Amino acid sequence: MLGAIDQGLITALLALGVFLTFRILNFADLTVDGSFATGTATAAVIIFNGGSPVVATLAGLIAGALAGLVTGFLHTKAHIDPLLSSILVMLALYTVNTRILWMAGSDGRRPSTVALLNKEHIFTWLIKAGLRGSATSILFIGVIVIVVLLIVNWFLSTKFGLAIMATGDNPAMASAMGISTDYTKIVTLMVSNGLVGMAGAMWAQYNGNAAVGDGTGLILVGLASVILGNAIFGTRYVWLMTIGVVVGAVLYRLAIYWALRSPFLDASDMKFFSATLVVIALVLSQWKGAQALVTKLSPWRPKEDTPEPMASVPNQFSPFAEVDGAHQSVSRKPGHATPTEQTERAQ
Amino acid sequence: MLRITGVSKTFYPGTANERVALNNVSLHLDEGDFVTIIGSNGAGKSTLLNIISGTLSVDEGSVVIDGKDVTKHSEYRRASGIARVFQDPSAGTAPHLSIEENLAVALNRGKRHTLARGLTKARREDFRTHLATLEQGLENRMKHRVGLLSGGQRQALSLLMASFTHPRLLLLDEHTAALDPERAELVLKLTAQKVGEQGLTALMVTHNMDHALRMGNRLLMMHEGRIVHTLNAEEKANAAITDLLELFSREKGSLSDRTLLS
To answer: What mean pLDDT, rounded, does chain A reach?
Structure first.
């Protein structure tokens, strides 16, 4: 079970990346499946060839960021739909990742998996001491996650971070305020996929291998963590949301761990289980009763502001906007004209 | 200050929906001018504003601000000098960001988005003073999300966000049209106050002829993509709404005659 927490903390880095695109930028980025595997492959090949573990981890981060750069470029400069541009990159990365793994093959062999047995990596000391999946390993990975968490929060509190949040919230306003939304989108996708790549690099080292299919379905893990975390901790403040995401990632991994222990479920059922879990979370988050229950069960959640009458919140195109309790309470009263209706009347 | 020369814009050219929005429009604004623009729907008022701000590109003609040709500059590059308030109260603010975060974004308009802190104690104090001038009690709700404010409050905030950085040019696109008369009056009062205090150069599009006559030092009437009448400060002061209506109907009549004869 402690091993599951270890793994949950590693996927928390991925979930933070997904949080940046889905929640902050309102960009449905599926690059994640590809960039995670790019992270695992890059780190594994470097370590396999005797490279430094820290360099390998950072290389995973950079490789992921480059994948994000391509997605951002396809979307902003080639004007391809966010979903489609990220699917295109995800698909193309499969080939790239295969080729990266080939670099670990000698004598013209083309391995589709690279094992890191007896290689020096960031978790070697834990494994040697038999502490993988112990309080020590949780502390070690936890410290890394907390450092990343602080960096993400600092990043979002800067002028550039505010520009990113404005881009995701109201692109037209951001543009009118002199923000190059192309630039903010590209940088956010790079940071997001960089975190995903770094998670991949740590994942490969933790599990001692990397394979082409490593990233498959991981976007769901990221999404589930974000939805779960935001449901528990609320969305009042950005820092609270990021903490929620980390906790959500760990809880999700624990749920998978317990599901796997049940005699009815096999490891191969996990994709179906994950998809079902995300559907349930999405449906529940639209249901007010569930929100009230979650709020009741989570006394630590700070209260949302009460809206003024006449408040209007424009539809967010993110499917997760509904998770936010504040928006649910803004309901249209009959006879209360919306701004657009009033305009029509005035004309 | 602002010089627009021979600007034309056609939407959906070459299709059945082809519509000439602007037809060879020229306009000159001096420093401190406050020009109001009226006209019927489809007269090209909003298109003109969108072309000045760079949201739309021109088919022909040029836009020069402070002697610099910005015709080819994208919207965000022009934003350092141009501030806007939109018709839709939700368009000018970010609903999920707090009031202070919105103001911080506005404060940084046209500047580089660095990794310096977005909000500092000094900046918050500054925002508080500015918010107090709106007399909406927003200075005590700085951490509240803007999406929770009423339409009038959001529009007042938009106006503050547009004006408190002393933009070279302020564009007001029917910014009171979505509000009830009482709130429209309040926002209009704030507009006069902000523009007057700082001597801003402004362009205000409106459907309300009373507003168009009361505000500013020049009035333009647009019809079918052209500026058909200009009233200077003196003519404007002596004009009544009925005079404007007269001008309007004459314009419509003359145009339909022309259409018939052609």
So the answer is: 85
Chosen from B84, B85, B90 to mutate, greatest number of chain A CBs within 10 A: B90
Which value does ipTM take for this structure? 0.88
Helix spans in chain A (H): 2-19, 32-48, 53-76, 82-102, 124-128, 135-157, 159-169, 171-176, 181-207, 218-233, 238-261, 270-286, 288-297, 325-328, 339-346
A258 lies in some domain: no
Beta strands in B40-196 (DSSP E): 60-65, 68-69, 82-85, 169-173
pLDDT of residue A136: 94
Q: Domain range for residue A43?
A: 2-213
Interface size between A and B, measured as CB pairs under 8 A? 148
User: Cα–Cα distance between A231 and B13 in angstroms, integer?
Assistant: 49
Whole-number percent of chain B with pLDDT over 90: 60
Contacts of B141 in chain A (CB under 8 A): 305
Write the pLDDT tens digit of every residue in A59-106: 999 999 999 999 999 999 999 999 999 999 999 999 999 999 999 887
Domain boundaries, chain B: 2-91+147-261
Under 8 Å between Cβ of A329 and A307: yes
Indicate whether A131 belongs to any domain.
yes
Which among B83, B97, B106 has the least Cβ separation from residue A165? B97
A287 to A225, A322, A325, B98: CA distances (angstroms): 19, 9, 10, 26
Kindly state whether residue A169 falls inside one of the protein's structural domains.
yes
Whether the per-residue pLDDT at A315 is higher than 80: the answer is: no
Q: B2-91+147-261 sits in which CATH class?
A: alpha beta
Which residues of A fall within a CB distance of 8 Å from B176?
none
Q: Does B209 touch chain A (CB under 8 A)?
A: no
pLDDT < 70 stretches in chain B: 254-262
Residue B65: other Cβ atoms inside 10 A: 21
Domain membership of residue A338 (yes or no) is no
